[in-house]
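hey can u check if this looks right to u? its 308 residues, i copy pasted from the old doc so theres a chance i mangled smth
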Amino acid sequence: MRAVIQTSVGGPEVLFVAEQPDPSPGPGEVLVRVKAAGINPVDGAVRGGFYPLLGEPPFILGWDVSGTVEALGAGVTAFNVGDEVFGMPRFPKQAGAYAELATAPADEMAAKPAAIDHAHAAALPLAGLTAWQGLVRHGGLKAGQRALIHAGAGGVGHLAVQIAKVLGAYVIATVSPDKTDFVRALGVDEVIDYTRDDFIGKAGNVDLVLDPIGGDHADQSLEVLRDGGVLVSLLNVHDATRAKASAHDIRVERMSVMPDRDGLVELARLVEASKLSPHVAKTFPLDQAGAAHAFLATRPIGKVVLTA
């Protein structure tokens, strides 16, 4: 099979296509003919050596996958050969989604939503599960509450604002000025241009903040949370921020997304009901993975996807 590999860490230029042995599914696994693989910021961090999840190269990046079942491992009964599936297998271990073939635990995959193509399905798992787990499982967001979603037009953000609206929340999103129309079209109730306005002065009495930025930004987010609110951070939170939050009875949840078949099924249900729509900014073929990573670094709206 053809796969995107890297033999050293570095910039997008370290990614190249090479022939690799075809994988075989083990017990409880499926072999997937990859039609599309989503790219996420964590991919770039691992590629550059800043987040060494996979150890030293060589390795194959990618966790978001959408494709068709090519073969079944022993004991798999949930799928048949030819089924269209999508998922985020094995995270944070190697899943090897940037390839023509990939194996995955069957219980970490779900039926691809028929309403969208493989490119859009591949844009959904990691970002969608991050948004779902952050808002629902870590944040406990309920109808009538106020949610502030930072980077509301990003990969996680544009899905999070839609999920928050489905849950019945009043949604505030921070974005750059060129992305305000996009998030308004998603149903956001209040848009804050972070290049012009201080969100602390614009948002207040918030029940939940979803923060993909971390650091000082997480600390600042405490200022808009009501006592008893929750800060859900996708990155590390300073000890001083935790202490400050505790003084105001604010719960701090540092989350890392996990494989979640039930979550995938719920995301697919929302897509089929036209309540959730992943946005793909651009697709690239496998042999342009480096260009795809460089494009993602420009912070486009939504997701970037490789097509096999």
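The longest strand covers residues 29-39.
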